[in-house]
């Protein structure tokens, strides 16, 4: 069976489960992806977009007053250029104000301290993450684990410290530990209260590692600066969950390691075996269904 045959097999197996687990049919935030249209199709498109919350357009399609009046929320374009966008009409519907010195400023990695919770626990993922962050000028890496990992730590290098010290000293904390009785809700109010109010927290391990109620309180009270979640409880997180209300909380549908090379190599080698071993995440395979 060639690559094309593997992809067809994956689509048949995963399509129904994907629509079920993501509630795609009943999603409140619908996105319409157009591959291009003739002029006589424009009127039909405007009817279809009425009432949706998101519209994704291509460079070849004009975004003007008619289009901007249709969606209720967000319009995005699959392009770097924006000459096909009516900026005057967009200004009327957007909430952007004038530029300010600190407008949309974030925290840089240069000269920062990065805390790693769970070094080497998932396919040496955190070691890879750390190695990719080094060129951005991270000054110091700290990590905690069930036991020191001297070989991995020396390659970064990073220092083995207690959880309290990592929480207190880190500018960024990234979590990639396995879920176990010892790591259940390890990221809780005790940890968040010790973090700096400029610290950014991210979790890409398991949702149950984080006490989401405590994370909500930490964000609401300003104990931490921001959070990024690739995993949560439950998945998918209900669209009315309080965490979605924060502008400084970014939530992704468990796809942070979804790349073409990772998926294609695994599928071509042996899809069933790779799936059983957990080398390919179901979320990654959905790429083939959507595109």
TrEMBL record:
UniProt domain D-isomer specific 2-hydroxyacid dehydrogenase NAD-binding: residue ranges: 92-255
InterPro entries registered for this protein in UniProt: D-isomer_2-hydroxyacid_DH (IPR050223), D-isomer_DH_NAD-bd (IPR006140), NAD(P)-bd_dom_sf (IPR036291)
Keywords: Oxidoreductase, Signal
Single annotated GO MF: hydroxypyruvate reductase (NADH) activity
Keyword Oxidoreductase attached: yes
Any one GO cellular component localisation term in the record: cytosol
Keyword Oxidoreductase in record: yes
Region forming the signal peptide: 1-15
The protein's name in its UniProt record: Glyoxylate reductase/hydroxypyruvate reductase
Gene source species: Dromaius novaehollandiae
